[in-house]
User: What shape does this take?
Amino acid sequence: MKNLWYNGLVKYTVFLLVTLLSLFLFVHSSFFYIDVITVQGADKLGSAEVIRLSGLHIGQNIFSVDGNQISHALRVHPMVKEVKVIRHWPRHLEIQVEERQAWALTPYQGAFLCLDMDGIVLDKINTFSADQYCIITLDQQPEQVVLGQVFDQEAVSSVRRVWDAIPAESRADISDYHYVNASQELVLYTNRGTEIKFGGLERLDEKVQSLVQIISIEEDYEEQGQTGLSYVDLRFKGQPVVKTLD
Assistant: This one.
């Protein structure tokens, strides 16, 4: 009886080892060699560049792909925000990329830096269409800026909150969001030249409502051929302080 049990154990062990070996050889066989790599969402970066940065290549075993490693390698690039790696068994790998989108421009050393909504520096350009971007200026520029870094988190965050609060139809009337570093306050300039002393982010909704009214007043003055506004001060509670052009 003991021999029978021992022989059964040996057979089961041999069978298990053969099965595991067969499975190992199958997993590492050419059946799982990648023959298709597709990229989705890389409109600016390009599929070829994504594949190059990922380190993937045709013929690589799909089981050897480390999605976290690929994601980390791609997110080093300033244009890449998020990455998802999807395996389509047995030989197709898909890389889904979410690119950062240029939202704002800020003048810097004779050119303009493109920033996304997180303040990440995406590019440096010399020409642009003003109606496409939020324009941010600062009293104090960073001494050195490199692609992929956050430009000025406090300034960008403040402008972003105000920009989000302004109705979409009124955003085009603002030509410049100026951040005063020392006081951490904002000064906005309209396309018609009015200086709006916005101050900090307190009473944000109230200030934005006043801002929309100011833009409407500007339009009325222009239609009637009247003198425009010089500045409006929204920094304090109560009625805004308004000064017209002499």
